[in-house]
Design a protein that fits this description.
Blueprint (H helix, E strand, L loop, with lengths): L1 H28 L6 E4 L3 E4 L5 H4 L3 E5 L3 E2 L5 E5 L7 E9 L5 E10 L6 E4 L4 E3 L10 E5 L3 E2 L5 E3 L9 E10 L5 E11 L7 E4 L3 E4 L11 E5 L11 E3 L9 E10 L5 E10 L2
Parallel strand pairs: 2-7, 9-14, 16-20
Antiparallel strand pairs: 1-3, 3-4, 5-6, 6-7, 8-10, 10-11, 12-13, 13-14, 15-17, 18-19, 19-20
């Protein structure tokens, strides 16, 4: 019995010594240094479809134990815009002992423009037709592409059951927090469905301040009920458009057929800053 106790005691001593040795060894060998990320420049320009290579340009990392860790750097996140077209990137690197470092830098998306809307058809309607504009308005963002699902449409006065000139407000916001809005006309007229139709290549255009536009160039064709072209008879009313003053304007196109029935189309013009 005494021999057994002695053997157990000796085994316990050896285990204790081994545990202490391992503990001390781990303390001695553990890397306590933190990796250092170096970032060139406070802000860099990148393309709209920036790759990781662009975003990581000029970013390096070094650790006393692991040495060069540049190829271990990851892009942790890209923020919403802190100003139009500018976001903050957070870079992260981890060494072999799970020590983590972070660094930040601003990026500017070169050529970024706020979202723009597109209208796919004429917003002049007959009182006697079903009016559905939900599928006629879309939006595209220079960073994200189509963002039509983000559009919100509101109106304070539109009613499809009475004639008149109404308006709707369309607003869209991209994932970076940048919003755009446009006021569009909705015109409901007491006219038969057999009036001539005027097809335009665009029903909403964006122009720079001071830019001139040939509104007739947007006429694709005008057809009467018998599909005879009346394109040369279309008149354009654009006298209210001020190309030197930013804002939203409407251009009206009219044509009358042999039966004195008048067709009407409308284009919205947004003059930029």
């Amino acid at each position: 019995m005494k021999l057994l106790r002695f053997v157990v005691l000796i085994a316990f001593v050896f285990v204790s010594i081994a545990s202490v040795t391992v503990f001390i060894s781990e303390k001695v060998n553990t890397d306590k240094t933190i990796p250092v990320i170096k970032v060139e420049g406070d802000i860099i320009d990148v393309s709209l479809k920036a790759t990781d290579e662009e975003l990581l340009a000029g970013v390096t990392a070094y650790d006393e134990k692991d040495k060069d860790l540049t190829d271990k750097i990851i892009i942790e996140s890209i923020s919403r815009f802190i100003e139009k077209g500018v976001s903050k990137v957070i870079y992260t690197v981890c060494d072999s002992d799970n020590n983590v470092s972070k660094a930040t830098r601003l990026i500017r998306f070169v050529g970024y423009e706020s979202p723009k809307f597109k209208v796919s058809g004429n917003l002049c309607f007959s009182l006697y037709e079903y009016i559905d504009i939900t599928g006629m308005i879309s939006a595209v963002d220079s960073l994200e592409g189509p963002i039509t699902s983000n559009i919100i449409v509101t109106s304070d006065n539109f009613s499809s059951s009475i004639t008149g000139a109404f308006s709707i407000d369309a607003t869209v916001t991209n994932s970076k927090g940048d919003s755009a809005s446009v006021k569009l006309p909705i015109i409901v007229e007491d006219r038969p469905l057999s009036v001539p139709t005027i097809e335009l290549s665009e029903y909403l255009i964006y122009v720079d301040k001071g830019q001139k536009v040939d509104f007739r160039s947007y006429i694709v064709d005008a057809l009467d009920l018998n599909e005879q072209s009346l394109k040369n008879n279309v008149t354009v009313e654009a006298n209210m458009v001020d190309f030197n003053t930013p804002g939203t304007y409407n251009v009206h196109y009219y044509v009358t057929d042999a039966n004195a029935l008048r067709g009407h189309s409308v284009m919205t013009v947004v003059v930029g800053e």
